[in-house]
């Protein structure tokens, strides 16, 4: 059976966002600590470009990001045309990574988007093979959605898709999605990490993620609505998933007795119209919870923003429960959530 994924995700970390930086961005620790405060758990530093350029800020950006507790990955902006230049650029990238003190477990990204590339598919394969010969096997291919639609690039490694004009990557099985080039007005690219490659420090691109799936079971030749958000804040995206198609599930929520499955980002479908209408995560909704420590109340599950701190020992009515990012969350009304770790 053909299985689809809205975002190519299977296991999302608690802080799913990661930034990418070049010489245009600052290199001080304060800058990266401010990003980390926004639940940005990783950063991809531009290290090299073409056959000779090395980012002069790279070493300090790497050190500052590590000091801020972020996972550090690297990217090379490809200019290669032909096998010889592809191998040469790979050698430069690998040597620069070693000179920067990063081991072969580092995630290494081929940024392939230059319109001057004549044979990007074949040359990227050559580049990645050469990089692997240095021992760098944790590789990712980055480009715009349109390049993946046009099949200009290989899919032998996980893909990181840039698509700013949509509310999802729009490329099946994307490992990550770059959704803006001006995050929070800070002139920095920001992405969602759907697999943990860029944000989980013990994650490797060679690890095959496990995934829960559901099949749409509705009327023949019809489909069910895909929703953005949960609860009172949700709205229909205008997209419908056809009966008989199967989808990966990243999370589950029960709001006011209605069960929902997350298909990536903040995209949700009603479980009642699927092959698993009663859930897959064993969620149990209590009537009330009591905070055992001062607990942070967040707005939203996917893009969490702390809105207040609840005092220890206070009791709250529960209107929903969710399995998200490897944890259980309780809904306290609207789109307000608290982690099960903070309550009794």
Structural description of this entry:
Keywords: Glycosidase, Hydrolase. This is Lyzozyme M1 (1,4-beta-N-acetylmuramidase). It holds the Pfam family Glyco_hydro_25. Belongs to the glycosyl hydrolase 25 family. It comes from Lacticaseibacillus saniviri JCM 17471 = DSM 24301. With 344 residues, the protein is an alpha/beta fold. It folds into 3 domains: 13-193, Glycosidases (TIM Barrel, Alpha-Beta Barrel), CATH 3.20.20.80; 212-273; 288-342. The protein is built from 5 helices and 24 strands. The strands form 4 sheets. It has a 10-stranded antiparallel beta sheet with strand order 13-12-17-16-15-22-23-24-19-20, with no helix packed on it. The chain has an 8-stranded mixed β-barrel with strand order 2-3-5-6-7-8-9-10, surrounded by 4 helices. A 3-stranded mixed beta sheet has the order 1-14-11, with no helix packed on it. Strand 9 and strand 10 (189-193) form a beta hairpin. It is globular, with a radius of gyration of 21 Å.
Average pLDDT, rounded to a whole number, is: 87
- How large is the radius of gyration? 21 Å
Fraction of residues in H or I helices: 10-25%
CATH architecture of the largest domain: Alpha-Beta Barrel
* Order of strands in the sheet with most strands: 13-12-17-16-15-22-23-24-19-20
CATH level 1 name of the largest domain:
Alpha Beta
How are helices and strands ordered from N to C?
EEHEEHEHEHEHEEEEEEEEEEEEEEEEE
Shape summary = globular
Can you summarize this structure?
The protein has 344 residues and is of the alpha/beta class. Helices cover 16% and strands 35% of the residues.
């Amino acid at each position: 059976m053909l299985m689809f994924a809205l975002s190519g995700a299977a296991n999302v970390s608690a802080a799913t966002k990661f930034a990418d930086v070049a010489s245009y961005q600052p290199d001080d620790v304060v800058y990266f600590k401010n990003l980390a405060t926004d639940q940005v758990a990783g950063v991809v530093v531009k290290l090299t470009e073409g056959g000779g350029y090395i980012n002069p800020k790279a070493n300090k950006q790497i050190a500052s990001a590590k000091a801020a507790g972020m996972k550090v990955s690297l990217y090379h902006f490809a200019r290669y045309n032909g096998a010889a230049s592809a191998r040469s650029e790979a050698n430069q990238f690998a040597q620069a990574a070693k000179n920067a003190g990063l081991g072969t477990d580092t995630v290494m990204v081929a940024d392939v988007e230059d319109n001057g590339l004549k044979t990007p598919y074949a040359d990227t394969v050559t580049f990645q093979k050469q990089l692997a010969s240095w021992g760098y096997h944790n590789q990712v291919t980055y480009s715009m959605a349109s390049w993946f639609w046009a099949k200009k690039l290989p899919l032998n490694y996980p893909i990181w898709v840039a698509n700013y004009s949509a509310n999802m990557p729009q490329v099946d099985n994307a490992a990550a999605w770059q959704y803006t080039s001006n995050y929070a007005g800070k002139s920095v690219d920001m992405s969602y990490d759907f697999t943990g490659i860029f944000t989980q420090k013990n994650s490797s691109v060679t690890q095959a993620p496990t995934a829960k799936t559901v099949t749409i079971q509705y009327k023949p030749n019809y489909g069910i609505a895909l929703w953005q958000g949960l609860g009172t804040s949700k709205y229909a995206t205008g997209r419908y998933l056809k009966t008989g198609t199967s989808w990966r599930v990243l999370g589950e929520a029960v709001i006011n007795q209605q069960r929902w499955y997350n298909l990536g980002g903040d995209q949700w479908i009603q479980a009642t119209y699927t092959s698993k209408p009663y859930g897959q995560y064993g969620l149990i909704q209590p009537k009330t919870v009591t905070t055992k420590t001062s607990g942070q109340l967040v707005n939203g599950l996917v893009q969490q923003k702390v809105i207040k701190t609840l005092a220890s020992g206070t009791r709250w009515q529960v209107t929903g429960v969710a399995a998200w990012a490897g944890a259980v969350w309780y809904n306290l009304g609207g789109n307000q959530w608290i982690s099960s770790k903070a309550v009794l």
